[in-house]
């Protein structure tokens, strides 16, 4: 075997052992060897390395059946920390995430929609600095930054290819933010990292095929199969918001007419509402619906119908075991979840597929992107280390 192949194998083995301890702790060395097929010597060597580096600790536990003492391994949660950033048009959320995906410190602030790329990134750098200082975070433990944002993202090159919401095109975000902060930076589409977070910590634990839907300023989806994000050829799989529903329909902010998201997203709902009377916020629109104003009832009901249609289409295409509804609309108006689930079951999901999947609201809602981005950064770190 060539030297670099050997190194690669060693890294892979190390990552495998690490992942097993992380997800199944506390666990014995023997159980790891059995699961991975590695020799006990290899497992012990890797465990010794990881313990020495401060990632693991040993605990003694008496096993239930035999009353024998065995040594089990567990993670030191704060051994590795990363920064998770949710970068959105109007607001930026930043959190310090530990190895279990717990947010140990966080902050958020408003972003001016016309703010330049550099100004946005300089501010993120300054806020991370402030957050770590005010929470006395040991920066030696901080291994990198993960950023989740809406749009098409080249996750391998760290480039934002195109983001309608941010108005960015071909922005070398990872490189720029690294230059400002000094940390390694990983970036990805927000729904993809959010789905990862739900899979590891939230509504999709134990699911082997999760479809994550986002209804908010845009409409999107992400698919996780056996723990892996389905990326497609250019990391654009899941851009369901721009599938064409009606070629003669409303203009979408992507420049095409009749995209699915023009029936659902907040911007379109507000611009339709304003044809009737001045409505400044999505809350006002839902208020008018609750008050029984016919036009508001019509607009929101139509949006909910298209959400149910989206779920049917995704279920027909991907046959998932779990569908998670997330995004600003479902976060702000939790009643949507029940209504759409009912529409799915009674009308819109094709009969043979009814009952083959669970529909769940996002469990991490507001924090999903921060947690997922932080965990993505850690995954990159352990894979490359
Ligand atoms: Zn579009």
The CATH architecture of the largest domain can be named as 2-Layer Sandwich
Backbone shape: globular
Termini separation (Å)?
21 Å
The sequence of SSEs as H and E is HHHEEEEEHEEEEHEHEEEHHHEHHEH
Relative strand content: 15-25%
Number of strand segments: 15
Q: How many structural units, i.e. domains?
A: 3
In helices, the fraction of residues equals 40-55%
Named CATH topology of the largest domain: Nucleotidyltransferase, domain 5
Mean pLDDT: 91
CATH superfamily of the largest domain: ATPase, nucleotide binding domain
Q: Regions with pLDDT < 50 over 5+ consecutive residues?
A: none
Structural class call reads alpha/beta
The top level CATH class name of the largest domain: Alpha Beta
Instruction: Provide the gyration radius in Å.
Output: 23 Å
Strand order of the largest sheet: 5-4-3-6-10
């Amino acid at each position: 075997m060539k030297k670099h192949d050997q190194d690669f194998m060693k890294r892979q083995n190390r990552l495998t052992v690490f992942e097993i301890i992380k997800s199944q702790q506390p666990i014995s060395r023997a159980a790891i060897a059995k699961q991975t097929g590695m020799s006990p010597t290899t497992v012990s060597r890797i465990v010794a390395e990881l313990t020495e580096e401060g990632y693991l600790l040993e605990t003694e536990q008496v096993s239930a059946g035999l009353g024998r003492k065995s040594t089990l391994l567990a993670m030191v949660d704060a051994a590795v920390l990363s920064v998770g950033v949710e970068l959105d048009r109007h607001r930026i959320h930043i959190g310090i995430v530990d190895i279990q995906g717990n947010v140990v410190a966080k902050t958020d602030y408003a972003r001016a929609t016309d703010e330049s790329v550099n100004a946005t990134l300089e501010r993120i750098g300054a806020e991370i600095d402030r957050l770590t200082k005010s929470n006395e975070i040991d920066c030696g433990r901080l291994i990198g930054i993960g950023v989740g944002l809406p749009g098409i993202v080249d996750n391998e090159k760290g480039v934002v290819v195109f983001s309608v919401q941010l108005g960015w095109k071909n922005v070398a975000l990872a490189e720029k933010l690294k230059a400002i902060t000094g940390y390694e930076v990983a970036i990805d589409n927000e729904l993809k990292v959010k789905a990862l977070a739900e899979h590891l910590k939230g509504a999709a634990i134990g699911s082997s095929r999760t479809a994550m839907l986002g209804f908010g300023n845009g409409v999107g989806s992400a698919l996780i199969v056996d723990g892996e994000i389905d990326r497609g050829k250019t990391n654009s799989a899941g851009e369901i918001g721009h599938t064409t529903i009606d070629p003669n329909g409303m203009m979408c902010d992507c420049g095409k007419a009749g995209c699915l998201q023009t029936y659902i997203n907040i911007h379109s709902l507000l611009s339709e509402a304003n044809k009737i009377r001045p409505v400044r916020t999505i809350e006002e629109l839902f208020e008018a619906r609750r008050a029984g104003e016919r036009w508001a009832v019509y607009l929101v009901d139509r949006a909910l119908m298209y959400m149910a249609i989206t779920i049917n289409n995704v279920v027909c295409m991907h046959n998932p075991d779990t569908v998670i509804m997330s995004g600003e609309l479902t976060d702000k108006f939790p009643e949507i979840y029940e209504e759409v689930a009912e529409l799915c079951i009674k009308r819109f999901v094709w009969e043979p597929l009814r009952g083959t999947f669970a529909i769940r609201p996002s469990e991490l809602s507001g924090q999903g992107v921060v947690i997922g981005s932080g965990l993505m950064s850690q995954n990159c770190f352990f894979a490359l280390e």
